[in-house]
Every structure is written in C-alpha cells, then in structure tokens.
Amino acid sequence: MPQPTLDVRNLQTHFFTRDGVAKAVEDVSFSLGSGEVLGLVGESGSGKTVTGFSILGLVDPPGEVVGGEILFKGQNLLKLSEEEMRNVRGNHLAMVFQDPMMTLNPVLRIDTQMIEAIQAHQKVGTDVARERARDALGKVGIASPDERLRAYPHQFSGGMRQRVAIAIALLNQPELIIADEPTTALDVTIQGQILHEVQRLCRETGTALIWITHDLAVVAGLAERICVMYAGRIVETGSVDEVLDRPLHPYSKGLIESVPSHNQRGRRLNQIPGMTPSLLSLPEGCAFRTRCPIADVECRRLPSLHEAETERRIFCHHPQRETA
Amino acid sequence: MSSLLETRELSKRFVKHLDFAAKLARKLGANVQEEVVQAVDQVNLDIRQGEVVGLVGESGCGKSTFGRMVTGILPPSAGTIHYNGKDISNAASPEGHAAALKIQMIFQDPFASLNPRMRVRDIIGEAPRIHGLLEGQSQDEYVANMLEKVGLDASYSGRYPHQFSGGQRQRLGVARALAVQPEFLVCDEAVAALDVSIQAQVLNLFMDLREQLNLTYLFISHDLSVVEHISNRVLIMYLGRVVESAPTEDMFHSPNHPYTQALLNEVPRLDLRKRQYTPVAGEIPSPLNPPTGCHFHPRCPHATSKCHTEIPQLKGIAPDRQSACFLNETP
Predict the structure, then answer these.
(1) A187 vs B277: CB contact, 8 Å cut-off?
(2) Which of A43, A131, A164, B67 could serve as a FRET partner for B200 with CA atoms 20 to 30 Å apart?
(3) What residues of chain B lie within 8 A of the CB of A271, using their CB?
C-alpha cells in the first residue's frame, strides 16, 4: 500500500481553561492518500475545526496538542520545530478558512499577498511570482486575472474572495489542503461554482483534500470518505455511500434523518432530542448516550472505535444493524 | 377563499442622498448621481389563511426587505399591503397598528435579536402586558405557558439570553413572537444559523405550532431543502423581482424559469454522490446597477436579444403557476 499523504493517529487536543480541561479533540485517527477527498462532518463544537488547526499547528494557548501523531508523508508534524513547521505550512500544507473577509489582509492588494506567499517559500523573482499568482487566479475561475491582481479584497464579492483564498492555498502546489467550511457563507450558485473548481483541481493536481463542514449534502456530492465527529471524537468513518445510506452509529443516523431533503415533505422531521453537551461536562462513557435512543447501561462504559465492517469503523456498543 | 395577506406592486427603493460636498460638486458640473437601489420591485403576493409560503432567493435579492415591509418594520416606497382586506401600508395608521400585532417576525440571528440585558420573563412578557393580553393571568404564568408551548422549561423565565444555546434562543424568539397571539409569522432565515439536528427541532416546532394555533407563515430562506420541506407554495426572487411562483411540488418537480432551474440544479443533495457540479456562470449583479430587461439575462443560457431590452412580466403558465420568462411565449 502506498504511503498515505496524511496519517493522523490518536490525536488529542485539549484546552486548559479556568473551568477545567475541554477535550476538543480526543483520540482522532484518520488517513488519506493523494487526490482523495475526505469529508469531516460534525455540528458546532464537535472538534472538526480544531482537528484542522491541530494538523496545521495553529492551536493557540490555552489549547495544546497533548497526544498522538500527525504523519505527513511519513514525517511527524508534531515533532517539527516552529521554523520547520513554517516551512511546511503554506508550502506542502494549506488551509482555506470559512470567512474570506477575515483571512485576506484588507489593506494589501491581492498581488502583494500572493507574491509574498510564494516568495516566503521559494527564491523566485517578483515577475515569476506574479505570473504564478495570475495563473492560480485563472485556475480558480477568476475572469481577467491580470487586472484582478491589482485589486484590494474589498473590491471582490464574497464568492470571489473565497476563490482568491483558494488560489492562495494553491500557490505552492500543496499536497494537502484543509478546507474549513469554505462555502458555508456563500450562496447556492456560488457554492456550486466553488465546488466545481475544487473538484476539478483535486482531479487534475492530485491534491488531497479535507473538507470540514456541517453540511452532509455537500459532502455527499464531493467526498469519497467521511468521518462523523461528535463531542471531540470520530464516531463513525467509512465511504460516503456506506455511511449515508447505511449509518451504523445512532448519531450519524439521527443526523442524516434530520436533513429535510431526506424526509418526506411536510412530515415531521426526525429529530435528535436535546443538544450537544458542553465539552467541559461530557457524560461519562459514550458522550452521546444522553441523547441516544438505544443507550443502555453498557454505554456508561467508553466504547472503542472498532472495525465494524471492512473500511468501516464505529464508536458504539450497539451498531445500528439493518433491522429486518 | 380570499387572501389573508395581499401585496400589490409592493416596491422598496433605498436612496443614498447626496451630502453637501456631492451637491456642491454637482453644482460645479460634476456628474454625481444619487445612488438608488431597487430592493423590491413591484411584488404581487397573495397568501391564504393557513398557508406556508416560501420565499427563496440568494443574498441581495430583496427577500428580507420584502418580509420587513410586510411586518411594518420598513415603510414601502410604493404599492399596497392589505391584511384581512384592510390597507396596512401605513404602519402608523390604526389598521397598521392592529396588524402589527397580528403579524410577527422571527429573525435570523438568535444572538442579535434578543436583548442581552433583559430576562426571559420580560423579553416574552413585556409586549403582552402592554397590549393587555394577559387576561387575568400574571405575567409569570403567561410567560410559563409560552415557554412550554415552544418546548422550553418554565423555570427558565428568570434567565438571561446568554444562558441559552443557539437553538434555545431561537425558541425564545418564537415564544416572543407568539406571546402577542399573532395570526401570521414572517420567518426570516429563522433556521439558517442552527445546526442540522437543532434545525430539525425548530422546523418541527414551526409545523406543530401551525397546527395548534392555525398560523400562516411567510418563510424566507435561501435554503431550498428547508423551504421544500415546509412550504405549500414557493416564490423565487431574483434582484428584487419575483421570477417564478408555483406550488412546492411543481416547482421542485418541473421548474420553469431558467434561474429556478439553475438554482435547483446547484442544491447539494444527500442522494447525489460524486456528482459533477455544472454551475451557472457569473454572480448576482450589483443591485445598484442591475442589467436591463430581464435581470437574469447575463447569466441565462437561453437569453435572446429581447431579454436584453424588455422586462418579462410574471404570467400564468399553468393553474396556480406563474413565471416571468419570454421563453414561455409561443412565437
């Protein structure tokens, strides 16, 4: 088996707050190969963004990666010095954030920001860098990139800004892009355009992609594999078809059934009772048990993430097998 | 059956007036114009008692402005709003006042729409007390009833909004709206800020309340799957104009207007895997400077020269269905 681009093993990221330790990411493992798209799905507070930040080494105090390994092409990113990490980040690894207004510097022109990103990692002349910046803008579908390079972020619409952010992520041809809810703030038609570009880029360049989102429907159309997170842990992983059509974990099942398009029109939606518990006071054992319809005494004991079927792992004592 | 709410050629223009410097510059011969945004352009809408009407469009299409005019928050620039046959276009008139109580709004952001310095008991109880709706009950009893109606514990009435989660706050917003015993609710992106599982809870709440209290909804959203689920009828807006109106099933089964088709095509769905996205080109043009003729023509794959110059009218194409597109005219 070829070496995976990214192999995360038992990652733990905790936040040491005054009120206690919040285990934002607990025992998270997954891997993905080149050109693969992995959907990381969860609701707010499930730890999906912190997972992305941990991989890039962007977790700030009081947060800290306290355990596990992040193997990027065989190299453990957690062992790198800040200097070495800076060399990897933005070069081999890139991230696209949710809010493009916050990630672009409002007082610098697009070309300044893009050329800086190239020259930070490679010794190239400004002219060459500008050319590459222009090509990157063209690749994400921005019309007349030559003129647009000289524009400021406020002169772009939200969708265009997100394209610029993606273009910047692409500049150094990274092997892995982590996209954190990049289309959540965008309109449907613009989201469609971005998804179209991203799909094409992954196919053409073989970049691996982690798509972090709360929107199951987006992942359905984009990813090959999916990880569902709940309260800091991965509760189910598998191929998109398997997980969405035949969810084994009661949480994934509840989540999928609560999507309106999954339900018959006008019917009551299936709802998961209660709400996500605070990370500071998680129930003992399985964190989902207080909302789970099938929880029993056994669930007070922490389940383990075990292989339920081939290529399917699940964090539950009672997998939802097909009931005849 | 007659309509509960009727708007006729309802329009809203936002004008940015010239300041002194600009006026002076114009006096001196500079080409300075007032900036005008036609946010809502002659919208006709009838909503029958008990109906749920979905109003869909992308950001900047004027759907929220429309909702705000219906609730009386914004005065219309032109056109009329009739509620139960009475003209309520002027919110300051006695009819407008009466309707303002009957038409309530639920806002998008449950964090911004509740006063952080008020306790739940006042957030929900203030309006009914002032309007004399308590009917002998104490304010606390009344608030407790309302909280139970929206699925919250009655003991929460002494709390402040920051002590609640997003989904609970949205329920508070619903309780506040229900407290003045409305007949008509305008939900402006009411579930957009919520997580999927919480969104399902709040949508269920809307559907339950509709049955219990015989409510009528105008459901404004950009999320087509939510609108498809909850509405009887859907209107699609683009740059201030309604481009298509149809019963939900027809709209999603056989969209007529090219914009509706493009929009429906883009909606990610759970059952579509590894799909090839084929998006419509371009973005919503600036409402400051909308395209001539049909607003959609620069992005439309079927646009003809007629679309550049003439504005298509919303015309009936089937019973209960209307669409504003020249393609429907037989040559």
Answers:
(1) no
(2) B67
(3) 197, 200-201, 204
Residue B302, CA atoms < 13 Å, CB-side half-sphere:
10
What angle is formed at CA A271 by the lines to CA A37 and CA A22, rounded to 5 degrees?
65
Tokens 């596990």 belong to A68
Closest CA to A126 of A116, A137, A136, A135: A116
| Angle between the N-to-C axes of helices A110-119 and A126-139, in degrees from 0 to 180, rounded to the nearest 10 | 110
Q: Mark which residues 61-120 of A lie under 8 Å from B by CB.
A: none
The verdict on a CB contact (< 8 Å) between A276 and B266 is no
| Domains with residue ranges and CATH for chain A | 6-92+174-315 (3.40.50.300), 108-171 (no CATH)
Q: Are A223 and A212 in contact (CB under 8 A)?
A: no
At residue B308, the 3 state secondary structure works out as helix
Give the pLDDT confidence of B213-255 residue by residue, as tens digits.
899 999 999 888 889 889 999 999 998 899 999 999 999 889 9
- How many CB pairs lie under 8 A apart between chains A and B? 136
> Which of A230, A309, A227 shows the shortest CA–CA distance to A46?
A230
> How far is the C-alpha of B320 from the C-alpha of B218, rounded, in Å?
17
Give the closest of B224, B271, B278 to A196, CB-based.
Answer: B278
Inter-chain residue contact B197 with A240, CB threshold 8 Å: no
So what's the ipTM on this one? 0.78
Q: Answer left, alpha or beta for residue B111, where phi above 0 means left and psi between -120 and 50 means alpha.
A: alpha
- The pLDDT tens digits of the residues spanning B106-158 come to 988 888 889 999 999 999 999 999 988 888 888 999 999 899 888 888 888 88
Strands A208-213, A37-41: pairing is parallel
Segment 276-305 of chain A within 8 Å of chain B by CB = 276
What b-and-e string marks burial along A191-220, b requiring 16 or more CB atoms within 10 Å of the CB?
A: bbbbbbbbbebbeeeebbbbbbbbbbbbbb
The angle, 0 to 180 degrees and rounded to 10, between the axes of the packed helices B166-178 and B196-213 is 20
